[in-house]
Every structure is written in C-alpha cells, then in structure tokens.
C-alpha cells in the first residue's frame, strides 16, 4: 500500500474515532439528564446507543488489524495503529458506563430522587471535559495536555468521595433511602470510571509520542 493510501486509511480510522467521541458524550449527557428529569424513555434511548459504539469498535479494530497484517508498519506507524485500538477500547468502556447509568435510572423507577443532584451532574460535566482534553492531546500528540488529565482525575475522585459521604449521611438519617442512595453511589462510581478511562487515553498518548508507557493514576 503506497504511503498516501496508508495515511488515508489512518485518517478514516480517526474520523470513526471522532464519531464515537460524539456518541459517547451524548450518552453521558443523556444518561444524567434522564436521571435528573426521571425520564425512563430517554434512558432506553441511551441504552440503544451503546450498540452504535459497539459496532464502531468492531469495525475500527478490524480495519486496524488489517493494516497491521497487510502493511507490517514500522515502529512509529505501528504505535499509531495500536493507540487507535486502545482509544476505541476506552471509548467503548465509557459508553458501557453511560449505559450502566441509564439502566440504574430505570431500576430507580418512576419516583422522585431523595435529594437534588449537584455533585453527580458536576462529575458528568467534568468527565466530558476530561474526555475532550484527553482526545485533544491524542490528536495533537501533545504530552503536556495528556499530563493535565491526571490533575482533573484527582478532582473527580474528590467529587465521588463527597457524593458517597453525603449519601451515607442520608442513609443514616433515614434507612428507607438506602436502596436509591446505593444506586446513586453506583452512578458516581460509573462517572469516576469514565474519568479513569480518559486518563488511560492520556497514557496512550504518551506511549504514542514517546514509545514508552507512563502511569498517570
């Protein structure tokens, strides 16, 4: 395959990554909107969107494996392909977590929430900021941007701890809230895991640029 065609194949893979990014962001935003508004129909739509991401993942991985097998790329090109495969894997897991939030909303059912949501939407907003930043670093092969994602992950951990502490206090005051409070804790955990996946993409960017791995967690 001529170099021009090889680069075009990589660009096509990146276009697919961009499409998955948009879908994952919609899923994160939608899952929290459905939770906050008690919208079960929207939760079901989020669940259906996970199939779109799964399909993209299969297609991207198949094309990437074909490039490796057919072209036997040199080290730098091989890192690009491997990184693409890692990125789509992380994005697919983010979609799974957003789908999980939608499923939890359905399990909570058509009832009012035990408290107004403040920190959970803040976690969702921050997770999307991290996703945007880590993919910016990836696209630009920018190690400095990738390293910034680590600091944001610490803030996500703090938000999750605050959610858990507040909900545990609510349970102690009123044990009948324990079921929904536990579900909300699971949601905070899912958002925190989405942030961890962004950190993984940041680490993948460092691997892409330097050829060596670094743990940012």
Write a concise keyword list for the protein shown above:
mainly alpha, elongated, 6 helices, Methane Monooxygenase Hydroxylase, Chain G, domain 1, 217 residues
Q: Given the C-alpha coordinates, what overall shape results?
A: elongated
The description of the largest β-sheet is: none
Q: The CATH topology, please? A: Methane Monooxygenase Hydroxylase, Chain G, domain 1
Number of domains: 1
Number of strands: 0
- Structural category is mainly alpha
Tell me the series of helices and strands, N- to C-terminal: HHHHHH
By CATH, the superfamily comes out as Phosphate transport system protein phou homolog 2, domain 2
C-alpha termini separation: 39 Å
Q: For the residues shown, what is the average pLDDT?
A: 94
- The CATH class, by name, is Mainly Alpha
Short description:
The chain has 217 residues and is mainly alpha-helical. The chain has one domain: Phosphate transport system protein phou homolog 2, domain 2 (Methane Monooxygenase Hydroxylase, Chain G, domain 1), CATH 1.20.58. Helices cover 86% and strands 0% of the residues.
Plain-language structure description:
The structure is a single chain. By secondary structure, the protein is mainly α. It has a single domain (3-210), classed as Up-down Bundle (Methane Monooxygenase Hydroxylase, Chain G, domain 1). It has helices at 3-37, 40-71, 75-108, 119-140, 143-173, 178-210. It is elongated, with a radius of gyration of 19 Å. The protein starts with a helix and ends in a 7-residue tail after the last helix. The model has no long low-confidence stretch (mean pLDDT 94).
């Amino acid at each position: 395959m001529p170099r021009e065609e090889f680069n075009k194949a990589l660009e096509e893979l990146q276009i697919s990554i961009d499409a998955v990014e948009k879908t994952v962001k919609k899923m994160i935003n939608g899952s929290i909107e459905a939770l906050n508004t008690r919208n079960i129909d929207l939760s079901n739509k989020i669940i259906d969107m996970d199939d779109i991401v799964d399909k993209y993942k299969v297609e991207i991985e198949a094309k990437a494996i074909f490039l490796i097998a057919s072209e036997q790329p040199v080290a730098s090109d091989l890192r690009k392909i491997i990184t693409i495969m890692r990125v789509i894997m992380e994005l697919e897991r983010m979609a799974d977590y957003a789908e999980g939030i939608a499923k939890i909303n359905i399990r909570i059912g058509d009832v009012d929430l035990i408290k107004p949501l403040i920190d959970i939407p803040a976690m969702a907003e921050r997770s999307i900021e991290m996703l945007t930043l880590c993919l910016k670093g990836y696209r630009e092969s920018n190690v400095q941007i990738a390293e910034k994602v680590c600091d944001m992950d610490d803030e996500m951990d703090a938000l999750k701890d605050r959610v858990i502490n507040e909900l545990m206090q609510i349970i102690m005051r009123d044990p009948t809230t324990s079921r929904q409070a536990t579900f909300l804790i699971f949601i905070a955990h899912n958002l925190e895991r989405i942030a961890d996946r962004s950190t993984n993409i940041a680490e993948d960017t460092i691997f892409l640029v330097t050829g060596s791995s670094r743990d940012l967690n």
